[in-house]
UniProtKB/TrEMBL annotation:
Name of the protein described by the UniProt record: GNAT family N-acetyltransferase
Keywords (A to Z) from UniProt: Acyltransferase, Transferase
InterPro entries (alphabetical): Acyl_CoA_acyltransferase (IPR016181), Bact_Acetyltransf (IPR050832), GNAT_dom (IPR000182)
Keyword Acyltransferase: yes
GO molecular function: acyltransferase activity, transferring groups other than amino-acyl groups
Pfam families to which the protein is assigned, alphabetical: Acetyltransf_1
Organism of derivation: Actinomadura montaniterrae
Domain N-acetyltransferase per the UniProt entry, residue ranges: 1-162
Residues forming coiled coils: none
Amino acid sequence: MQIRTATEADASAIARLHLSSYRTAYRGLLPDGVLAAYDPAEREHRWLERLHDPSRTTFVTTPALVAFAEIGPSAVPLTGELLALHVASSHWRQGLGRALHSHALKALTGRGFQSATLWVLDGNQRACAFYEAAGWAFTGEARRRHLRGTTVHELRYRRELTP
C-alpha cells in the first residue's frame, strides 16, 4: 500500500471508514445510541468541509482506502496536531497505522512544527498503547467534550518532532 494526500473524491470513503472505525474502536467506551446516531451523509459533508480547509491535510492509503490520518495546526505555537488516525479493523496490526503515523509526523515537521499533540478518548487503551509505543507521552491534561448528548473525556498526548 502507498499513502497519498486525500482529495474531495475521497470524502465518501473516508466518511464510511470513519464511522466504521468509530463504531468498532469506541464500542463500550461510548453509548451504543451515540455510535448509532452518526449519519453517513452528515459525516461525508463534514469530510468535504475538512478536505477544503487549507490548514488541514488528510492522508489515505491507496489503492484501497482502508486507513487515513489527518493533521493540522494546534492552538499552541510551533505545535501541530494529529487530528485523526483510523485504520479499518480488517487491517489492524498490518503496519498501516504506523506508516500513516510516520507520514503524518513527517508532514508536520515539513510544515515547521517542532512538536505535536493529539487527543485520545479516555479508556481507548489500544490507541494509548499505540501512541506510547510511537514515542508520545500523556501530558496529564484532560478535557471534556459534549458529543451527541453525552460527555466524553479525552486525554492529551504530546511528542517532539525531529527534522
